[in-house]
Amino acid sequence: MSRDINDIKKRILYRSSHRGTKEMDILVKSFVDTIINSIKYEDLLILDNFVDKGDEELLKIKNEVSNSTDNLIYKKFKDYKSNF
Q1: Using CA atoms, how far apart are residues 5 and 57, in angstroms rounded to an integer?
Q2: DSSP helix/strand/coil, 44
Q3: What is the Cα 11 distance to its own chain's centre?
Q4: What percentage of the chain reaches a pLDDT higher than 70?
Q5: Measured CA angle at 26 (ends 11, 13), to 5 deg
Q6: Which long-range contacts (CB under 8 A, 24 or more apart) does 37-46 make?
Q7: Residues 34-43: pLDDT tens digits?
Q8: Is there a contact between 18 and 25 (Cβ–Cβ < 8 Å)?
Q9: What is the C-alpha separation between 41 and 27, in angstroms, rounded?
Q10: pTM to 2 decimals?
């Protein structure tokens, strides 16, 4: 593995809670917290890119009627029910 898993996780956790809007910080951070320690390395790299997406793009993914992507992270986010 070319990049250290712990460094990737730290970066993801930081970026998931420092997005710019409080509501999306809470949603994305709580989502990341629920999956970050249970996904494989390849999905961790996808999650690393996922947290860089803009709020509008993430809301579009969250609110899609159909789930056209085969990506595990996107499916989990779409199905995620936050407790806040």
Answers
A1: 26
A2: helix
A3: 12
A4: 88
A5: 10
A6: 39/72, 39/73, 41/1, 41/5, 43/72, 43/73, 44/5, 44/8, 44/9, 44/12, 45/8, 46/71, 46/72, 46/73
A7: 999 999 999 9
A8: yes
A9: 22
A10: 0.86
